């Protein structure tokens, strides 16, 4: 379950909290997969050092810099470009889901920014060449497939992966809010994802058995 939303002022008033800022960068596109399936939008996420999918960004100390300046600094490290992010791009702030029984003292601030397709492509190139975190804290940027291809491939399989914190709900809420997919498409994809999840559990058990043989 997601934690309660905090206003920006409320979040910044918590002086013993840690703050993390992340952003969903996206664009429209006219390109088509296999020359027939519309890609519609490019939505960027990243494969993190810990094997989880997440959004670019990171820890910010509001006593040293604004949340947005800190986010831009993180984007330079992780993507090789200091993408400007403003207060208008802010979507929500929440406590991160607790990882132990102790209450979470990490507030995650989430932003969304629309860009041109060419800018997104430049970012992808820089992420794999000039970004200092490439191969270290970030294993690579990934595009979120928003379509449903044959045998359910696409968004449903993507959503069945593992995500950091509440990144999956940040993605889903953004897709709905920005009308990048319809609620019907999303519902179908999530139903399929649940089935995939059950299949993955079986695959993992079989793989474990191989190591024990
Ligand atoms: N929802 C909730 N929590 C998140 C999300 C999200 N979508 N994305 C990241 N986090 C958490 C991470 O678990 C981490 O604890 O926010 C914190 C900071 O985010 P990172 O992007 O991991 O921070 P970054 O500054 O890029 O990396 C710094 O933080 O993850 C640790 O030790 C790790 O060296 C790394 C350091
Ligand atoms: Mg990070």
Report on the structure:
This protein has helices spanning 8-13, 67-79, 117-129, 155-159, 167-177, 183-212, and strands at residues 5-6, 18-28, 32-33, 37-38, 41-48, 53-54, 57-60, 90-95, 106-114, 138-143. It has a single domain (5-212), classed as Nucleoside Triphosphate Pyrophosphohydrolase. It is globular, with a radius of gyration of 18 Å. The N and C termini lie far apart (39 Å). It has 213 residues and is an alpha+beta fold. Strands 1, 2, 5, 6, 7, 8, 9 and 10 form an eight-stranded mixed β-sheet that branches. Strands 3-4 form a two-stranded antiparallel sheet. The model has no long low-confidence stretch (mean pLDDT 94). The structure holds adenosine-5-diphosphoribose and magnesium ion. Residues 20, 22, 54-55, 57-59, 74, 96, 106, 108, 137, 164-167, 170 line the site of adenosine-5-diphosphoribose.
Topology (elements, then pairings):
Elements: E1 5-6, H1 8-13, E2 18-28, E3 32-33, E4 37-38, E5 41-48, E6 53-54, E7 57-60, H2 67-79, E8 90-95, E9 106-114, H3 117-129, E10 138-143, H4 155-159, H5 167-177, H6 183-212
Bound molecules: adenosine-5-diphosphoribose and magnesium ion.
Residues 57-58, 74, 78, 137 line the site of magnesium ion.
């Amino acid at each position: 379950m997601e934690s309660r939303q905090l206003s920006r002022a409320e979040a910044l008033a918590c002086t013993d909290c840690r703050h993390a800022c992340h952003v969903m960068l996206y664009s429209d596109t006219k390109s088509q997969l296999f020359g027939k399936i519309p890609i519609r939008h490019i939505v960027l996420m990243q494969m993190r050092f810990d094997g989880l999918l997440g959004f670019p960004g990171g820890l910010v100390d509001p006593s040293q810099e604004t949340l947005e300046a800190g986010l831009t600094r993180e984007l330079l490290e992780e993507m090789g470009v200091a993408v400007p992010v403003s207060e208008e791009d802010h979507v929500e702030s929440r406590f991160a889901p607790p990882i132990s029984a102790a209450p979470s003292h990490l507030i995650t601030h989430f932003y969304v920014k629309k860009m041109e397709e060419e800018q997104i492509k430049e970012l992808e190139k820089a992420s794999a060449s000039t970004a200092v975190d490439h191969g270290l804290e970030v294993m690579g940027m990934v595009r979120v497939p928003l379509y449903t291809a044959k045998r359910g491939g696409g968004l449903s399989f993507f959503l069945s992966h593992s995500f950091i914190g509440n990144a999956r709900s940040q993605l889903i809420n953004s897709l709905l809010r920005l009308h990048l997919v319809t609620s019907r498409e999303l519902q179908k994809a999530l139903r399929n994802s649940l089935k995939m999840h059950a299949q993955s559990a079986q695959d993992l058990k079989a793989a474990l058995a191989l190591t024990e043989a």
